[in-house]
Write a structure and sequence with these properties.
heterodimer; A: alpha/beta; 10 helices; B: mainly alpha; globular
Chain lengths: 264, 300
């Protein structure tokens, strides 16, 4: 019954209320309110140290929230372990890449398929035909995801030997293997050249449509974000300073000041 | 090296070494440096010694101790050690790295000192006259070989499964593993319990083979020796600790002809091994390579 926009009628998939956290003397996040609707590509912009990755860490349970709440489909999830949150359908990638270095690319994705890889232990132990079928199915699923991210031929290679861009792709493939409803992408375009960035933009759209995803994305490359996101929030010094459509955010005086400085 | 130098008795000790190596390997597969193996080994050994010498119904008076009684002891030892590991693991697995190692050394010491001072557990003297299910070392070696083969087969299955992959993922990056929906605490606990069970059944076999049991068999030295099996052999696949346990148990005996020099050579092997092969002798990549060569060799 509030006077919000039309989309406020539907309950948000993910919501943060007055979310904050303090690391010693640093207030990394303070009073952040966000509401991400199902199916959206929602961008987080902000200068270095603005608290974007910290927000991801709070949502995914990696860092406990200091104050406020994180709601998933209306239910509080802050305080849950990362593995519980992952099993709810929230998958993430890491800004500084946290692949399983000693595992092959395919095994990295297979670990991502953990939740779907459950098999009754007698089958697993004895290698019954059912277990073999299950095994093949998982292998195919993993290969499918690798191909979707255009790293299909690299399946048997150890993750440690990949190029930077391929590592980013593998992180996305592993996150998709979690079969998430919400995908958190932390600087997926870092280290990519302009062509690759353009491809990534299309890829994220494709993934959203194909897997029915909601995407929350952090990225520094402003043109990419303006072209990709349905809505954007801008953080600075741990506070949300702007929120809205790309056009609205682009012309927001607070954003211009944060990026270009007060006297600009 | 002359193969004849390895008699059934040494082979038996080597197989025990391989089993203990696997026990250290299981937690290490998920990056947990646990040195508790000798503690659970001692639990298995003490339990077997007590049961077989004090419970007449098991058949200790018979000329040949029934194999079924040994299997029953193994079952009970596995249950006792496994149950204890669940309780202890919940607490100590909160620790990481060297702190977990220290806590598990403490566990081994607590068990050792308790046994030493508890007359009913054998005290300082130990327990003698443990009945023999086999009349010669060959029988023991065969029995232990079957047990080792079974444990290796289970490990091989495990490594190809969801649980085995989850363990590897935790070793590489625990946080990233948790973010894939893996219950990391539970996975580490399962590995710790499996490790305890393997060590305990090994203790049961050992107690009968050695004929006597005392507190000194599960001490800090054993922690380091069993760890060396895995460091030398490799901790990424079950074949590593097996090879490590077999060779490092045999080496001091095989080097006996060179007298006291053997201690220096043994020390050098343990020192140089990890320097030249940081991942250990056996890694999954090398195994694949060997398998590939064997296939190529078999075709023409």
């Amino acid at each position: 019954m509030s006077s919000g926009t039309a989309s406020a009628a539907a309950a948000p998939l993910l919501e943060t209320r007055n979310l904050g956290v303090r690391f010693g003397g640093l207030q990394a996040l303070e009073g952040v309110d966000l509401a991400v609707q199902a199916g959206e590509i929602f961008g987080l912009l902000g200068p270095n140290g603005a608290g974007k990755t910290t927000l991801f860490n709070l949502i995914s349970g990696v860092t406990p929230a200091g104050s406020g709440a994180v709601l998933w489909r209306g239910g509080a999830i802050h305080g849950l372990d990362p593995n519980r949150i992952a099993r709810l359908g929230i998958a993430r990638t890491f800004q500084n890449l946290r692949l399983f270095q000693s595992l092959s690319c395919r095994d990295n994705v297979l670990v991502g398929l953990h939740r779907q890889a459950r098999l009754p232990w007698p089958d697993a132990l004895l290698g019954t035909p059912r277990a073999r079928r299950h095994h093949h199915h998982l292998q195919e699923q993993a290969q499918g995801l690798l191909e979707l991210l255009e790293i299909g031929p690299l399946g048997d290679q150890p993750a440690a030997g990949l190029s930077y861009g391929d590592r980013r792709r593998l992180e996305i493939a592993r996150a998709l293997a979690n079969a998430p409803q919400l995908l958190l992408l932390d600087e997926p375009a870092a280290g990519m050249n302009p062509t690759e960035k353009e491809e990534l933009r299309h890829l994220i759209r494709r993934l959203r449509d194909r897997f029915d995803l909601t995407v929350l994305i952090i990225e520094h490359h402003v043109p990419l974000m303006l072209g990709l996101c349905d809505r954007l929030a801008v953080l600075n010094f741990g506070r949300r300073i702007a929120l809205g459509t790309p056009d609205a955010v682009r012309n927001d005086p607070a954003v211009i000041e944060a990026y270009l400085g007060g006297q600009a | 090296m002359d193969a004849l130098l390895i008699d059934a008795s040494l082979l038996q000790q080597m197989l025990i070494g391989a089993l203990l190596g696997i026990s250290v390997y299981l937690p290490l597969r998920c990056g947990q440096l646990s040195l508790a193996t000798p503690g659970f080994y001692a639990i298995g050994g003490t339990l077997a010694a007590l049961l077989s010498t004090r419970v007449d119904a098991l058949g200790g008076a018979e000329p040949v101790y029934p194999l079924s009684s040994v299997l029953l002891e193994m079952l009970l030892a596995a249950a006792l050690a496994g149950g204890l590991a669940v309780g202890i693991g919940r607490v100590v697995l909160r620790l990481r790295g060297v702190y977990l190692a220290i806590a598990t050394i403490a566990l081994v010491e607590i068990l050792r000192v308790t046994t030493l001072n508890q007359e009913s557990l054998g005290g300082a003297v130990g327990i003698f006259g443990i009945p023999q299910p086999f009349l010669d070392p060959q029988g023991y070696a065969l029995f232990t070989l079957i047990a080792l083969a079974l444990v290796c087969w289970l490990c091989d299955r495990l490594e190809r499964q969801r649980l085995g992959r989850a363990m590897e993922a935790i070793r590489d990056d625990e946080l990233a593993a948790a973010c894939q929906g893996i219950d990391t605490d539970r996975t580490k606990l399962v590995a710790f319990v499996l490790s305890a069970v393997v060590a305990a059944i090994t203790g049961v076999i050992s107690a009968h083979f050695l004929n006597s049991w005392n507190a000194r068999l599960g001490n800090f030295d054993a922690s380091i020796t069993t760890l060396a099996f895995v460091v030398f052999g490799g901790s990424r696949t079950w074949a590593g600790p097996v090879i490590g346990g077999l060779t490092l148990t045999a080496l001091p005996e095989l080097l006996r002809p060179i007298g006291d020099l053997r201690l220096i050579v043994f020390g050098l092997v343990i020192l140089v091994g990890p320097l030249l092969l940081p991942q250990g002798l056996i890694t999954p990549e090398r195994l694949r390579l060997i398998r590939g060569l064997l296939h190529r060799g078999a075709k023409p």
